UniProtKB/TrEMBL annotation:
A molecular function (GO) term: S-adenosylmethionine-dependent methyltransferase activity
The UniProt record lists the keyword Ribosomal protein: no
Keyword S-adenosyl-L-methionine on entry: yes
Keywords carried by this UniProt record: Methyltransferase, S-adenosyl-L-methionine, Transferase
Protein name from the UniProt record: O-methyltransferase
Organism: Streptomyces inhibens
InterPro entries linked: Cation-dep_OMT, SAM-dependent_MTases_sf, SAM_O-MeTrfase
Amino acid sequence: MRQLRGQERAITGNRQTSLAFAEAYGAGTIDDSAEAALRWSRDCAREAGIRTVTTGTGAALRMLAATADAKAVAEIGTGTGVSGIYLLHGMRPDGVLTTVDLEPQRQTFAKQAFRAAGFAGNRARFIPGRALDVLPRLADGGYDLVFCDGDLMECLEYLAESLRLLRPGGLVCFEGVFADGRTVDSAVQPAEVLRLRELLRAVRESTTLVPSLLPVGDGLLCAVKRG
């Protein structure tokens, strides 16, 4: 079979089917109470007009948290708690999720969702406020994983803060880097897409990070901080 060098193979029908299978693969792999909490959280998000992580992205986050044996995770963008449920399921039983969101009402939904999923109240620390005001108050090197799902225009600042917050060997993840396909579209794009391109370039060219771009959901950019 001829190999294409320096080019991306076209996504054929079979590849689309494979991607859809991979996206759905993680469904049903957590307990019933958590699945019910996820459905409720997604319904709340839909009513509020908030996008949530997909099943594939959630499964990847859970796996990455487990791989890092994460005891301390910071999340930018609580939403209604969907991503937090996946992260908590991957973390150590004594792990604490610190989650930041500008909208306290969203965090109220997330608290209910975490409780319904069976997590004790001390497993999550909710901090309302703008991420770039909150993150500087968190401890240097005190986190195993940082998940960024906030303002796309602030993604480069999130990266800088994440590098400070992470321990050596810790993970940083950015949700939504495909921007519904606009990141690789040659047409004129809005400022937030241009900023995402800067983020992708910065992570790939960093000597401090070991990166990978996972084709789940709307694109999950992950990188490990070198020791």
